[in-house]
């Protein structure tokens, strides 16, 4: 589904990613871990097409298409969705309008008619209940006045409604208490399927207690220094990142 080859990327002239190679197949959940400044969020930003990030070398394909040639909206229409570490507030735009507009834009890109209003309301109310969110959230401006946990639940609500092929979660666990973490994790786990992939960026193994990854990759100084299964995350929790950094330096 996603193939990254020898990816180099810079921000304001400073090279952050220094040769990332990674393949994610349908049905897989991958976690990217690493210390501050390793390039984790830069990788997410490049995949999402955020301005200010310059790819200087390498390639990214999404379902065989050249991702770097696709505009941000084309990536979204093709089935990519980004869950932000710091979700933005959009004053004056109600949650319900954002969800309906985004869903209909996806459907239009697939050549489908707009979703009928009763069907849309049924879908949204079911997912609201699943995320333990009050229906009043639909009439509130997007993320405006939301707590940190409410913003993260809202990110997952969008994913449940839009059903992306590839979900990118950039530190979706930051700022969550235990109860909110469990609800968010349940939402993410409900998205797992044989034809969908999930890429999670996280600092902490605690998220991976609730969302078991198929693969864990440790990013050190803009490169993947080590990959393994979920037990690698447990080892990082116990030993920190220093031993990986030392092995990378020795290599």
From TrEMBL:
Keywords, ordered alphabetically = ATP-binding, Nucleotide-binding
Q: Taxonomically, which superkingdom?
A: Bacteria
| Segments forming domain ABC transporter | 2-246
Q: Which InterPro entries match?
A: AAA+_ATPase, ABC_transporter-like_ATP-bd, ABC_transporter-like_CS, FeS-cluster_ATPase_SufC, P-loop_NTPase
Transmembrane ranges, per UniProt, are: none
One Pfam family of this protein, by short name? ABC_tran
Q: Which PANTHER family match?
A: ABC TRANSPORTER I FAMILY MEMBER 6, CHLOROPLASTIC
Q: Which family does it belong to?
A: Belongs to the ABC transporter superfamily. Ycf16 family.
Stated name of the protein: Fe-S cluster assembly ATPase SufC
Q: What is the lineage of its organism?
A: Bacteria, Pseudomonadati, Pseudomonadota, Gammaproteobacteria, Oceanospirillales
């Amino acid at each position: 589904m996603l193939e990254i080859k020898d990816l180099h990327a810079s921000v304001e002239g400073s090279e952050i990613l220094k040769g990332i190679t990674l393949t994610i197949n349908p049905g897989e959940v991958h976690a990217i871990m690493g210390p501050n400044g390793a390039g984790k969020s830069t990788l997410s930003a490049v995949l999402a097409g955020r301005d200010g990030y310059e790819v200087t070398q390498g390639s990214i394909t999404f379902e065989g298409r050249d991702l770097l040639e696709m505009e941000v909206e084309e990536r979204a229409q093709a089935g990519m969705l980004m869950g932000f570490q710091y979700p933005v507030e959009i004053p004056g735009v109600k949650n319900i309008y954002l969800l309906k507009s985004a869903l209909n834009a996806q459907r239009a890109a697939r050549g489908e008619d707009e979703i009928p209003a009763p069907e849309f309301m049924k879908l949204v109310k079911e997912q609201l209940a699943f995320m333990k969110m009050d229906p009043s959230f639909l009439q509130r401006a997007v993320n405006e006045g939301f707590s940190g946990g409410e913003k993260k639940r809202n990110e997952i609500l969008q994913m449940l409604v839009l059903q992306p092929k590839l979900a990118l979660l950039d530190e979706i666990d930051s700022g969550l208490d235990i109860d909110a973490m469990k609800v968010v994790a349940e939402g993410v786990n409900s998205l797992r399927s044989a034809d969908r992939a999930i890429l999670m960026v996280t600092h902490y193994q605690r998220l991976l207690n609730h969302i078991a990854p198929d693969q864990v990759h440790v990013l050190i100084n803009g490169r993947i220094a080590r990959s393994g299964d979920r037990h690698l995350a447990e080892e990082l929790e116990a030993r920190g990142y220093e031993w990986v950094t030392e092995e990378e330096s020795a290599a």
